[in-house]
Amino acid sequence: MQTVILSLVVFALAMLGLGLGVLCRRAPLKGSCGGLACGNACAACPRKEGKP
């Protein structure tokens, strides 16, 4: 039972943190590479021009 309660508390804290980020109008999370906004900008990108 303690494990379930601890899990719920951790989950609630995570949701609270995400909610505070939205309320403070922080920039949304975004990936470091890939996706439509990649633009072949990162060196590790498999779609980078010049890579096989």
List keywords for this structure.
42% helix; mainly alpha; 52 residues; elongated
Task: Describe this protein's structure.
The chain is 42% helix and 0% strand. The protein has one helix at 2-23. The longest helix is centred in the N-terminal third of the chain and has 22 residues, at 2-23.
List the topology elements.
Layout (H helix, E strand, L loop, with lengths): L1 H22 L29
Overall strand count: 0
Spans of at least 5 consecutive residues whose pLDDT stays below 50 are none
Question: In angstroms, what is the radius of gyration?
Answer: 19 Å
Arithmetic mean of pLDDT: 74
Taking the sheet with the most strands, its summary is: none
Bin the strand percentage: under 5%
> H/E order of the elements?
H
Class by SSE composition: mainly alpha
User: How many angstroms separate the termini?
Assistant: 53 Å
Helix content: 40-55%
Number of helical runs? 1
Taken from the alpha-carbon principal axes, the silhouette is elongated
Report a brief summary of the structure.
The chain has 52 residues and is an all-alpha fold. It is built from one helix and no strands.
